[in-house]
Amino acid sequence: MMFLWAFLVGGLMCVLAQLTLDLFPVTPAHVLVLFVVLGAVFGGVGLYGKLVSFAGAGATVPLPGFGYTLVSGIGEAVKEKGVLGLLTGGLTAAAGGIKAAILFGLLASLLFKPKA
């Protein structure tokens, strides 16, 4: 049943992103920033954590999940390191995802030739 909820929640987020692109005069970059910021805000007030508990990867893989990861990492780092955690916590928590994006981007650039 968890796979179904993950699929539905992740799919609903994709539908919301597509509707935002179709109905408003925004670029994909605007939608990216909007969804990451919304994930951070909802994570900061404690709502996104409940969605993650309910939908699992359906909530952590889409863009709002990145914002949630940054905020939750900052919260943990502040508890451990104090004010310095504000600067280090988000990147520490998201380091695995950032590394994967860089490595897969490098691999794709080595394997495929771009077309002009």
List the helices and strands and how they pair.
Layout: H1 2-23, H2 28-44, H3 47-55, H4 57-60, H5 63-81, H6 85-111
Keywords: Membrane, Transmembrane, Transmembrane helix
InterPro entries: Spore_V_AE, SpoVA
Protein name: Stage V sporulation protein AE
Mean pLDDT equals: 93
The major beta sheet can be summarized as: none
Strand element count? 0
**Domain module count:** 1
Provide the low-confidence segments as ranges: none
Number of helical elements: 6
Rounded radius of gyration (Å): 16 Å
Binned strand content: under 5%
Category from helices, strands and their pairing: mainly alpha
Protein architecture, described:
By secondary structure, the chain is mainly α. It has one domain. 84% of the residues lie in helices and 0% in strands. The protein is globular and about 50 Å long. The chain crosses the membrane at residues 27-45, 52-71, 91-112. It holds the Pfam family SpoVAC_SpoVAEB. Keywords: Membrane, Transmembrane, Transmembrane helix. It comes from Sulfobacillus benefaciens.
Sum up the structure in keywords.
globular; mainly alpha; 116 residues; Spore_V_AE; 6 helices
Short description:
This protein is an all-alpha fold. About 85% of the residues lie in helices and about 0% in strands.
